[in-house]
Amino acid sequence: MTLITSPFAALGRTVLGFLAMIGRVAIFAGQAIGHIVRPPFYPREFLSALINVGYFSLPVVGLTAIFTGGALALQIYSGGQRFSAEAVVPQIVAIGMVRELGPVLVGLMIAARVTSSIAAEIATMKVTEQIDALVTLSTHPMKYLTAPRVLAAILVVPALVGIGDVIGIMGGYIVGTNQLGFAPGAYITNTWNFLEASDLISSLIKGAAFGFIAAVMGCYHGMNSGRGAQGVGRATKTSVEAAAVLILAANFLLTNFFFAT
Amino acid sequence: MIELNNVHKAFGSKRVLDGIDLTINRGESMVIIGGSGTGKSVLLKCVLGLMTQDSGTITLDGEDTSKVDRDAFLARFGMLFQGGALFDSLPVWQNVAFRLLRGSLKRPRDEAREIAVEKLRRVGLTPDVADLFPSELSGGMQKRVGLARAIAAEPEIIFFDEPTTGLDPIMSGVINDLIREIVVEMGATAMTITHDMSSVRVIADKIAMLHDGRIQWTGPVSEMDASGDPYVTQFISGSAEGPIEAVR
Which of residues 157-216 of A touch B (CB under 8 A)? Predict the structure, then answer.
């Protein structure tokens, strides 16, 4: 009998553990928001997080976007040729980058670069008793470590997404005008005329949501890391995996919300 | 006065603190000794509220520490952590002046820096150390910076967690002397946890021997050698023979 029931028991334990973790993450995210809006505030930590999350992510975001935009232009041109629709390259590059690839790629790059660094930093602080030291110095770790990073990510990732969108379109423009024979003026006019405000707004909202997810995952897994180097490594790995999956899931939900009707 | 009454703490089935009763009088330097893994750090963390005891009460000047205003409570404490626990991202002076740069004890930046440099001088470090980062310091220097941070806001109570762990005998002696001087000079209440007997003899007014989750013996340091308690005697002699099992 035990042989029959034990797989179900194991499955049950896994499901319960997963649900409990969702609950813990949700409570943590709620607390993070609460600490963002309640004093005391730490402007220096916020500015530092803003520079780390935003400014230092610019190279990776820019490079990712320009290559993706260029590749997208080539793919659309090649695919479009099959039904004589090569002319739509500027429009599809624009809509593809702004609505989908810009936010998702920037989100994933932020998960790789920022989530991992936040998780590793906070986890190291935990194992070296720096978090305990913060408490003994009358400083709430959620307020000092989590709130500035989450707020910075919510504010700066949409800006990165906007920049990624523009650079991605530029990548398509460079390939389109230099390799595929599009006229520069016509390419820009087609791009500009085709995009709508709602495309850009959805892109920026996705950026804010992805920034929130990336920062919360980094902070949560850092704060709850295990002991020693292995604990730090596991926290870092898990945070990036969780952030990437949640960003893709949130992207589906947001796309459904904005464009399903 | 810090009083612990029947304090219990367990992690799963492992009982770490099993009915601790201990009193530390104002201005007294209490050193808690015991082997590795006997719950000394857990005891200290319970007093500070970094961990919550399963049962029993801890009071500070008669007030239950679980019911007091946390900020006001922690403002009375300074703490030297075993590994220093300095913030890597901040220069030394900002580590020392951390409490003075934010919160209820906030001072102007220049004044906080002046105090930090003065505290660094007090622990034997020159002002040029102030702008270095913790990673640029040796272990002994990090301990001194940690000590400077613990005393920066002139707390009434200072906790020292294994203050000489990882230091050579000379640096250990320097840190022990500094701790004793500072505690006497400030008139602070001190609670130190250590298994270094040279620290005990320099720092302690009283000692408490922790083993099996209980205080096995407590008394003045002057009576320690003649205590007659088998746990204390074995611990002082460092012998493998006695009630404390060598393999734990």
Answer: none
